[in-house]
Design brief:
Layout (H helix, E strand, L loop, with lengths): L6 H8 L8 E4 L2 H12 L2 E8 L2 E8 L5 E6 L15 E5 L3 H10 L3 E8 L5 E6 L5 E5 L10
Parallel strand pairs: 1-4, 5-8
Antiparallel strand pairs: 2-3, 3-4, 6-7, 7-8
């Protein structure tokens, strides 16, 4: 019996719907990936190295979506953000548990958890490179009917 997945099954498993992927660079991409995976809770989906640099990394948020990052390369300055200038909002149904875990880990909190007038419960932190991350329950407004 052949138990190896065929190529078509493997491609179907790996394909994704078109989506928006926030991207950024880091001075120490390995350390930032470790922080985002081990402390925050992203999933390490792919990390490709180019000698001592991270050429590309994909980290998925367990509840959906993800980010892409790599080692800072001054040659890409014309289209890529300087390390520490990235900001993102991450939707989670587990905002209180995440806040508790991150504050217990000593993560720098920029905005304590609180309920917002638009119905979200959220907080904000800074990662070790200074990027700003907001986490909350707000999923965005429904798309208008076409």
């Amino acid at each position: 019996m052949n138990t190896a997945p065929n190529q078509q099954q493997e491609q179907q498993k790996q394909s994704r719907d078109p989506a928006v992927w926030p991207t950024f660079q880091a001075h120490d991409a390995i350390a930032l990936i470790d922080f985002l995976v081990d402390t925050v809770g992203f999933l390490r989906t792919a990390v490709y190295h180019d000698e001592d640099r991270v050429a590309h990394a994909q980290l998925d948020w367990p509840e959906g979506g993800g980010i892409m990052l790599g080692s800072y390369d001054p040659a890409t300055k014309s289209w890529c953000l300087e390390p520490g200038t990235f900001g993102a909002y991450v939707v989670t149904d587990h905002v209180d548990a995440l806040y508790e875990r991150l504050t217990a880990a000593g993560v720098r909190v920029l905005r304590p958890i609180e309920d917002q007038p638009y119905g979200s419960r959220e907080f904000a932190i800074a990662d070790p490179e200074g990027n700003k991350w907001s986490f909350g329950t707000y999923r965005g407004e429904p798309r208008p009917a076409e």
